């Protein structure tokens, strides 16, 4: 019942949660992310008061917390109960108790209060008492105070609304943006009871930013190499050069796709976490994590998880505006998962699979996200659906579902619900707003589509691929391609691939009419790139449903000619065995070839003129023209059912930008550099209008921060 | 042991076979197809002589047959033993015993015999004694005679060679064209023993056509509506208007894909047919058809069979020359199959499925064709692999595998081996030359591909679709679309589809500047087609692996805009329930819409000038241009894994023309008719450069007779 007050390393304060587990009160401590304001508010030992709690599928009022210290930090334990699984999400409402903050407020002159004088004014400190544990939960919207006690039972989203109680509803509406509609404000208006006291308002007539709680305060720290699309909730992908450098994406670089905050379950108390399973007849059964591990055999499955929005950025650039996070090619990662088979657990829970009705298995996470899969997939041992607690030989990280997540190999990752708290076998699909991620339309000028609702949810994923690394010219000659010449890798050890590796001795080092590393800046640029300019490409290919990738084709000339890439035999390498009944992993591929001859601008201007873009048509089968200024690299994959990728994003365009699986195109253009301060020295270097290039680092600014369904 | 001598209806002769079944001699009688010469040769009662036979996986020499009649017709019982399954294929060698034929030979003057005088001459009548039942089998090639006794055991194709014994090898080499190579003739040269006597040679120094046996003599009669690609072996597809008129393709119109002749098993003796199963340990087990039916539960599975070459004709027209039968869109059909589960039979035969090695189930047909599927597919009850003896409620027709065939739903039809005689569970794929049907290359200018051998065999099929019916303008207004306005069909009974059916009252009957049915031929043509010109389309969509079709998209303007077609709910209709664990059937679709306005030639010339073709670009996303002269209709389908079809055949081009699954395009062009003798009367009618049009009858001459691997 006592929490530490200081983080041993950061000196940051620690927050505590009160939660219930089968009628027993438990306190979890949270290592709070250090932030500017919060850092100055130490949290003392917390005292529990009030009546004991029992578990339930509905939220119970939690007793209020009070500090035993005089320098109080009130912590709102906005606990959330899903079935028998319990968790506490922490919202720090303590900042205003910091004297410094209150002093600052005192210094600013309050605006005149011309609001309805018939309604009372409330101080934020008093509003905070009406938190999720209160019998009279209140919320703030703008400068108004609402008593939502009567509304909670009717709220379509359920008890999640209580997370906002005692504070502002606005950060939650930023997440659940469906609320940003007039009819929602009309509902809220019915519960208006007063206004925030002007003493707690800033110059703009609203509570200060510091006084608004941050639902993401307990999110874990992330690897700085991740390219972040949104901070809250965090959505981030690994940089391409890290994405598939190894067969298993390292845990800290595995792409992060969150709809909300990261629920907090303390590692030391994880054995008190429980999963609830509800069968069609209403019977429920609970399993602690320890029980799951003891009762069922541990299974390992090597599987990709991929967001339906992977490569959405591509669709936007090639076909038109799409709604949603503008993912690059990194909303996909591969890992070795460890857990127990869902089919084993469901059988143990008493599920009768003889039922022939088309049932669904609904997963619900601790943060309220949910999604479902067909029961036929769940109960088929060959589907390898796991309740996973391990990832790449380590415990599941918090960002990836600690302590337990579903892993549904071969399906869209939206089904692999993290922080799993409840499983319901039902005759309905999950009603989560994330359940349906359908194609809305094909073709940019298509109007509203009457068939939207009839489109099935995405489960199994179609075949896709991407180029994640490009090396050109000197990059190849100078041995900067990690897998070239490395006899230890699985590609080089494949004798049949030897012929595909460029013979470096045969690559001319003297460019036509141009001397590399020439310090004389008056030397004219060559008129074209040299013949046999070497290029090396790498990337991944993947298909859903456990269908193996059987071939990857590469074009260096925009689709005019094709050649097959080498498939890296990761699964047959002793160091990276693949677990599972089917081909759930990605297939990495490698390719080396020679670029077509391209023309260079006559001047030695270091930057390529924009007009050149028009010269670099991206037609699917451009006419064979000598001396184009740019060329388009393309990759496409084929799976064992001989399904292959669509040629263009226009052909599969949908306004949600889902399943952007068209051939992956990377346009590259040569340029003539003066050698001033450049790593490349003077000579022909390469860049692209798509921020790919030699060494292939995707630039972070290209990754736009756009949220789904704005 | 006695055969009838006359067919009761045709008066044609009957041939008999001697075969063995578990050591017992059985005679099968064959109703021979009446042909010009053979009709005049009655076959008398046959007498068996020689030693008794035992079954074996190698061919046993059969005792010779002799006629008890003085007017002898020798019948070569080129029996073929595959495991315990037995069958006789009939080759009529009797023609030369017909006195009329011999008389005709006598009338022609024999050419001078300037061949090697050191070798003997043989009469055909004597050569025929060295048939498949002889201990010294001989064959003829051109005018030479070979004793192949020593060669049989070494022959890579096995005992099949004995089918040719006693006669010419040439008709078999026409089927097994791999033999048309110098090294094969070198092998044969070793066994030369002499020449055909000049008395049996025609003016060209070769045996007359009549004296060469026809391996296809016992093929069944076929429905004349079938469009025939090759006669021997028969390869034929139903006309489009029949293909998917009903959900189940009628047996007599189901497409026919044969590699060889149709083996003959007499219906009355079918209970003596037996299937042999050989397990990995070499153990064998045999089942008669009666045993299969008695011992295992009968299952029904509704499933498509589709040739890997379906729509090859499309690939040829749009991407370049391909080798193989130039199938239209009809190398696919749908039927309800009845049989027993392969998984049940394999389990009964004692197969241990715990073996984790990647085993294969090899099927061999009575005519020597073979193909295999992975064991994992064979033993999974959800894969619904059948040993089928019924088709659409009737016994399996001879053309479709009577008495027993494999049906492997969701896979390429090449795996659904007909006339099934033997099943071998092995660690190897079938070595049949038809096993590998890989993409050879992508891109028309790709050279020989070193990865050919590494490409996996086609098993599961990718998603495809086709337009099988088009009605335009008056065809729609005049109610010639069978499914429009028919309240009994499953489409019209779907309320949501009502809005998609064109409101006929709203369709203008008066064309702009043009009076339909005007008898005044000087009336000028309109300059363009009317607005809202109605069009109706129908077709099918299908994906392998049991993946349901979830949407079908149609474009009427070459891909510029798209709309969804209605999916016909056949499987939910009480009259056409679908059997099986997954979606193995095709999905029929229907669409109505309005065509874009197109320009018409200024003259009223009835035929469209060829130059118009150039005006009708088939680019995937043509620029939006008003007043094009033609438009391209497109259909594409998406399956439940959201795999969709490639846009162009160029993108999946392979020289074998396999898996031609690109968007199906049908270009249509309006023309102005004078009304002279035309059914349409005077007005705007439609035709296409691809022989589709109003009413959509594919013209037979378009279907070229080309054989695979010429």
TrEMBL record, chains A, B:
<keyword id="KW-0500">Molybdenum</keyword>
<dbReference type="InterPro" id="IPR005066">
    <property type="entry name" value="MoCF_OxRdtse_dimer"/>
</dbReference>
<protein>
    <recommendedName>
        <fullName>Nitrate reductase [NADPH]</fullName>
        <ecNumber>1.7.1.3</ecNumber>
        <ecNumber>1.8.3.1</ecNumber>
    </recommendedName>
</protein>
<dbReference type="InterPro" id="IPR036374">
    <property type="entry name" value="OxRdtase_Mopterin-bd_sf"/>
</dbReference>
<dbReference type="GO" id="GO:0005758">
    <property type="term" value="C:mitochondrial intermembrane space"/>
</dbReference>
<dbReference type="Pfam" id="PF00173">
    <property type="entry name" value="Cyt-b5"/>
</dbReference>
<dbReference type="GO" id="GO:0008482">
    <property type="term" value="F:sulfite oxidase activity"/>
</dbReference>
<dbReference type="InterPro" id="IPR036400">
    <property type="entry name" value="Cyt_B5-like_heme/steroid_sf"/>
</dbReference>
<dbReference type="GO" id="GO:0043546">
    <property type="term" value="F:molybdopterin cofactor binding"/>
</dbReference>
<feature type="transmembrane region" description="Helical">
    <location>
        <begin position="12"/>
        <end position="30"/>
    </location>
</feature>
<dbReference type="GO" id="GO:0006790">
    <property type="term" value="P:sulfur compound metabolic process"/>
</dbReference>
<dbReference type="InterPro" id="IPR008335">
    <property type="entry name" value="Mopterin_OxRdtase_euk"/>
</dbReference>
<comment type="pathway">
    <text>Energy metabolism; sulfur metabolism.</text>
</comment>
<keyword id="KW-0496">Mitochondrion</keyword>
<dbReference type="InterPro" id="IPR000572">
    <property type="entry name" value="OxRdtase_Mopterin-bd_dom"/>
</dbReference>
<dbReference type="InterPro" id="IPR014756">
    <property type="entry name" value="Ig_E-set"/>
</dbReference>
<dbReference type="InterPro" id="IPR001199">
    <property type="entry name" value="Cyt_B5-like_heme/steroid-bd"/>
</dbReference>
<keyword id="KW-0560">Oxidoreductase</keyword>
<dbReference type="GO" id="GO:0030151">
    <property type="term" value="F:molybdenum ion binding"/>
</dbReference>
<feature type="domain" description="Cytochrome b5 heme-binding">
    <location>
        <begin position="119"/>
        <end position="197"/>
    </location>
</feature>
<keyword id="KW-0472">Membrane</keyword>
<keyword id="KW-1133">Transmembrane helix</keyword>
<keyword id="KW-0408">Iron</keyword>
<keyword id="KW-0349">Heme</keyword>
<dbReference type="GO" id="GO:0050464">
    <property type="term" value="F:nitrate reductase (NADPH) activity"/>
</dbReference>
<keyword id="KW-0479">Metal-binding</keyword>
<feature type="transmembrane region" description="Helical">
    <location>
        <begin position="75"/>
        <end position="93"/>
    </location>
</feature>
<dbReference type="Pfam" id="PF03404">
    <property type="entry name" value="Mo-co_dimer"/>
</dbReference>
<keyword id="KW-0812">Transmembrane</keyword>
<dbReference type="GO" id="GO:0020037">
    <property type="term" value="F:heme binding"/>
</dbReference>
<dbReference type="Pfam" id="PF00174">
    <property type="entry name" value="Oxidored_molyb"/>
</dbReference>
């Amino acid at each position: 019942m006592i929490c530490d007050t200081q983080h041993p390393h950061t000196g940051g304060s620690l927050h505590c949660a009160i939660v219930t587990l089968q009628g027993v009160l438990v306190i979890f401590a949270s290592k709070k992310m250090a932030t500017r304001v919060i850092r100055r508010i130490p949290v003392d030992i917390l005292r529990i008061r009030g009546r004991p709690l029992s578990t339930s599928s509905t939220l119970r009022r939690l007793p209020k917390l009070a500090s035993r210290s005089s320098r109080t930090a009130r912590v709102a334990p906005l606990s959330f109960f899903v079935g028998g699984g319990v968790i506490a999400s922490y919202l720090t409402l303590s900042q205003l108790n910091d004297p410094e903050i209150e002093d600052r407020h005192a210094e600013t002159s309050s605006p005149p209060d011309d609001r309805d004088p018939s309604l009372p004014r409330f101080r934020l400190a008093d509003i905070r008492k009406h938190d999720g544990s209160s019998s009279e939960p209140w919320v703030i919207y703008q400068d108004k105070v609402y008593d939502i006690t009567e509304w909670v039972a009717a709220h379509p989203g359920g008890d999640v609304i209580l997370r906002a109680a005692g504070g502002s509803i606005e950060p939650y509406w930023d997440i659940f943006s469906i609320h940003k509609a007039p009819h929602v404000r009309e509902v809220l208006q019915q519960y208006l009871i007063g206004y925030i006291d002007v003493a707690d308002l800033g110059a703009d007539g609203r509570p200060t930013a510091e006084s608004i709680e941050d639902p993401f305060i307990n999110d874990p720290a992330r690897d700085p190499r991740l390219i972040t699309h949104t901070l809250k909730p965090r959505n981030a992908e690994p940089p391409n050069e890290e994405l598939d450098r190894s067969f298993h994406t390292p845990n800290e670089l595995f792409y992060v796709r969150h709809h909300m905050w990261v629920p907090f379950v303390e590692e030391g108390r994880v054995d008190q976490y429980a999963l609830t399973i509800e069968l069609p007849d209403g019977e429920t059964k609970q399993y602690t994590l320890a029980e799951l591990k003891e009762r069922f055999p541990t299974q390992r499955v090597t599987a990709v998880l991929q967001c339906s929005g992977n490569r959405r950025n591509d669709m936007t650039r090639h076909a038109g505006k799409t709604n949603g996070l503008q993912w690059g090619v990194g909303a996909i990662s591969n890992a070795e998962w460890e857990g127990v088979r869902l089919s084993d657990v469901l059988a143990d829970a008493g599920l009768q699979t003889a039922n022939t009705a088309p049932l669904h298995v609904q997963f619900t996470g601790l943060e309220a996200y949910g999604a479902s899969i067909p029961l036929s997939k769940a109960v088929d041992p060959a589907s390898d659906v796991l309740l996973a607690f391990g990832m790449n030989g380590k415990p599941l990280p918090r960002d990836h579902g600690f302590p337990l997540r579903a892993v549904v190999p071969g399906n869209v990752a939206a089904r692999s619900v993290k922080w799993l708290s409840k499983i319901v076998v039902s005759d309905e699909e999950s009603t989560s707003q994330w359940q349906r991620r359908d194609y809305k339309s094909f073709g940019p000028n298509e109007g509203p589509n009457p068939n939207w609702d009839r489109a099935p949810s995405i489960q199994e994923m179609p075949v896709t691929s991407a180029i994640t690394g490009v090396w050109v010219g000197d990059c190849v000659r100078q041995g900067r391609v990690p897998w070239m010449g490395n006899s230890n890798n699985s590609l080089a050890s494949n004798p049949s691939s030897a012929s595909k590796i460029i013979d470096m001795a045969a690559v001319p080092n003297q460019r036509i009419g141009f001397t590399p590393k020439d310090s004389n800046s008056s030397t004219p640029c060559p008129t074209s790139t040299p013949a046999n300019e070497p290029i090396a490409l790498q990337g991944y290919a993947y298909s859903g449903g456990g269908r193996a990738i059987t071939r990857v084709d590469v074009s260096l000339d925009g689709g005019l000619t094709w050649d097959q890439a080498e498939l890296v035999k990761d699964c047959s390498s002793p160091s990276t065995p693949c677990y599972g009944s089917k081909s759930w992993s990605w297939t990495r591929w490698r390719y080396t070839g020679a670029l077509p001859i391209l023309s260079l601008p006559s001047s030695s201007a270091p930057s390529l003129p924009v007009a050149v873009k028009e010269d670099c048509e991206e037609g699917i089968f451009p006419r064979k023209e000598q001396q184009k200024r740019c060329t388009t690299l393309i990759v496409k994959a084929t799976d064992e059912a001989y399904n292959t990728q669509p040629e263009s994003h226009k052909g599969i365009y949908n306004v949600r930008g889902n399943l952007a699986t068209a051939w992956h195109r990377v346009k590259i253009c040569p340029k003539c550099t003066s050698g001033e301060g450049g790593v490349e020295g003077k000579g022909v270097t390469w860049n692209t209008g798509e921020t790919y290039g030699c060494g292939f680092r995707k630039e972070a600014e290209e990754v736009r921060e756009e949220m789904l369904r704005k």
